[in-house]
Fold this sequence. Notes:
Elements: E1 4-9, H1 16-32, E2 36-41, H2 46-53, E3 57-60, H3 71-79, H4 88-95, H5 97-106, E4 114-118, H6 119-122, E5 132-136, E6 146-148, E7 167-172, E8 177-184, E9 187-195, H7 203-207, E10 213-215, H8 222-238, E11 244-252, E12 260-267, H9 277-284, H10 289-298
Helix pairs in contact: 1-10
Amino acid sequence: MSTHVAVLQGGLSAEREVSLSSGKAVIEALKHSGYRVTPIDAGRDLAEALGRAKPDVVFNALHGRFGEDGCVQGVLELLRLPYTHSGLLASALAMEKPMAKRLFLEAGIPVPEGVVMARRDVTGNPPFDPPYVVKPTNEGSSVGVRIVRADDNRPPFDAENWPFGDTVLVERYVPGREIQVAVMGDRVLGAIEIRTPRGFYDYDAKYVPGLSEHLMPAPIHPKAYDEACRLAMAAHSTLGCRGVSRTDMRYDDTQGEPGRLVVLEINTQPGMTPTSLVPEIARHRGISFEQLVVWMVENARCGD
């Protein structure tokens, strides 16, 4: 009998639709590769759903809170079910951006200058002159991220309809280019540059076809390319990640090349959608989508 894989998708976060898209692609690839697959829309009855399905292994295609932040990983640990991507601790650390930044700094990994502050204080007393960036402390896919510019008359966020908590992370804006690097196990797959006319790589630019241009490999100075790869591997190792991760960076080349790289965050469960970057980077290295997904299943396990 073939290996039985439960694919967790959907979920409860603001990234539900992205997860459904990732899950659909993963399910098709696994079925084509000969696996027996059970899709599970991960709700609050997840433990019961897994008990009914009785899978051999779990492919976690969830994104955002309750799927990428250690919560689901904890359930899977209790059930002793091998699962893809990072373990409980690394997942929780990566999703909590201020803590990840602190650990990166201690490891010598450059990050943007930033401060956590009460949401109510940002509008009246921002810590930086514009431009600066306001973001939730524990969301992904650029959900809730806003760049506040000098000529911007809008508030940093809608105070009446902000669903991401009472504290925010405010960072000094880093000019330059969007660089993202994929890591697969103990090796770096490569760095890609993202260009978009939307001002920054926001939610729509990530998932709406045609709103961003992907350049693989990233056309940056060779020394900067090597440094981007080194930083991604360092970030992956610092948090104790496993499986596949993607590290997002800014490359400030405004004073010429090679420029300055800073790490924005690491994604422990990067997207597997038709416009996602990790499959594209892997494909450039000769790894098909099916091969990538199969590798992730074969390297699934419990424990950190």
